[in-house]
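Example 401, ligand fe (ii) ion.
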Amino acid sequence: MNVFKSAYCRIFQTVFKIALPLLPYKNPKISDNIGDIAGVIKANGKNKPLIVTDKMIYELGLCASLEESLKAEGIDFRVYSDVVANPTTDNVDEALKIYKENACDCLVAFGGGSPMDCAKGVGALVARPKKTLNDLGGILKVKKKIPLLIAVPTTAGTGSETTLACVIVDSKTRHKYAINDFPLIPKYAVLDEEVTMTLPQKVVSTTGMDALTHAIEAYIGRSGNKSTRRDALEAIELIFNNIEASYFDKTREARKNMLIASHKAGRAFSKAYVGYVHAVAHSLGGKYDTPHGLANAVILPTVLEEYGKAAHKKLKKIAVYCGLADKKTKAAEAAATVISKIKELNAKFGIPEKFDFIKREDIKGLAAYADKEANPLYPVPKLWNAKKLEKIYLKVGGYAD
Ligand SMILES: [Fe+2]
């Protein structure tokens, strides 16, 4: 990246870092029991939620206990269960139609990142009825309060229950973009491990690696503060210590710890941002529908290696905190232990080292999207332009070592 653009990026990021304590972040109120939702709805003076979820979750019966508890409290509700991975503008329009036609007055997002993003999109359009989602893309454009939003994460990964981001794919152009604004932070988050107990292993691993990516990108970025760094480190340690038990043994304790880790990672990156791993992953999700966590898992080691020296010091701190290295270990060596640990986990979960579906002729366009998403917003350890980002796609796509 040339010196003028990189100076612009760093100044932009510094302004955001300085402004951080002044911004209206509000962590959601936490509950650990789905049975509490009916009471929360009533306490907020609402009586007709729209539950936004996806087909797999609905067919697995994960919403049943929520539906029963709502019925028991005499709360009428509607369900939209067609959210796809990488939710689209069509999904939001369909859910919004049900919301309006049935005079719903609040939202329960039930699922992984996709239902939560879809519910946030519905909320944004209820708050700003004259706007399209595209109009609201970018930063701080929603501006108005959205309906009561209760988030129930059923995967321990996205951290969407604590973030101000809503990522949507335009159904026509397949362009993936984010709407970021404070009113999109859910008012309540329900961290009940019961709903994660029947998750398929593939979802446990990929969403867990997504949470790990949030925590690592937030930690090694340059906009963190004491509290985001603490959240990120605690999340990374919890993930390293629990993700295998969550995947192989399915213990309740490991699943609970992964939910907590994902939440902490979400808190960290919502204030300290992510980095190029996410920018590249979003472009692959938009173009090829690659599940977000899977994309991150594959891209993360490559990007960390490419940051090189710029990330060594912070990666060493992660390694020391997690007991992978000690203070005397050289920074490069300690950083390598973290990257090896990620590769090792990927291998155990059957996550590939490369993707074989990235078309060479798509790379230029993909890199341009990633460049646009990341620069100047993401406070990455090292700045890359679109040309440099192409190298990441060549590596991840198996065209280069
Ligand atoms: Fe993510």
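Summary: Residues 183 and 323 are 38 Å apart (CA to CA).
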